[in-house]
Amino acid sequence: MGSKPKYKEIFNLVDFLQLTPSEVKIYKRLFSKPMTINDLKKLRISERMIRNDIKMMLKKGFVQRSSVIKNSRLQYVYIAALPLITLKLIRDVAVNADKLMTSYTDKMLKEAKKHISKIK
Asked: Any idea what DSSP says for residue 5?
């Protein structure tokens, strides 16, 4: 019996990246299977919010879009990015946060030394 990978940690990390609750809900649903906007309406989220959330997640790289022709009409199908891609996005955010923290710490140390030298 094979064990399923646990994606709960990824969902928690995605939530940590300050995605809105509706974006997290959409991401979880898209993680299970590709869906259209109409399919996502079943989440009881307004179509405008779904479209806006999808747009933001596409921009951030958490969702991918592909076009499909169905009944002679063009439809877009959305799917959550692969777990490795999501983890890479999270890692990049963490690396940037670490760099920012390091530069901020260096700046604060310089300021503190400057103030200490003025006091002496």
From this structure: P
